[in-house]
Amino acid sequence: MPKFGNTSKEKRALLCNDLKRLVDEAIKEYDFSIVETHRGKAEQERAFNLGFSKAHFMQSAHNPCPAYAVDVYPYPTPKVQHNGVIELDSNSAEWDKMISVFKRKAQELGIKITCGIDFKSFKDKPHIELTDWKERVKKI
Ligand SMILES: [Zn+2]
């Protein structure tokens, strides 16, 4: 059975309880790495400036702590050679396999998630967030 490496464990610690439950169930069935959870102000603005995110600070479910969003990569990370350079393969079928495991587990656990793979304009395949995260932030 797959289990989290040390980096994933450290990132997992910054997740809200529902996302912890979800990643703990998903890892039993599909091996993945947790690459991002909580993102502070400087990191969020940096991600915006680099084009990895369309959100400013506190417009993203990654910003509250604990975080209401998690970015996950299939493990081993899908790679492709592009003009002689090895890079992340965002077209790999593994993304769909991984996200379908997350969707099924979320349903079993009664956790409502929104997946970046379903975003209309900006497909963010590694991204999973709680659908009601904005309401949850108001309650803090
Ligand atoms: Zn994300």
Short description:
The protein is α+β, with helices and mostly antiparallel strands and 140 residues long. The chain is built from 5 helices and 6 strands, in the order H-H-E-H-E-E-E-H-E-E-H. The chain has one domain: Muramoyl-pentapeptide Carboxypeptidase, domain 2, CATH 3.30.1380.
Question: How would you describe this structure to a colleague?
Answer:
This protein has 140 residues and is of the alpha+beta class. The chain has a single domain (6-139), classed as 2-Layer Sandwich (Muramoyl-pentapeptide Carboxypeptidase, domain 2). It is 36% helix and 19% strand. It is built from five helices and six strands. A hairpin with a 2-residue loop joins strand 3 (79-82) and strand 4 (85-88). The radius of gyration is 15 Å and the shape is globular. The N and C termini lie far apart (36 Å). The mean pLDDT is 95.
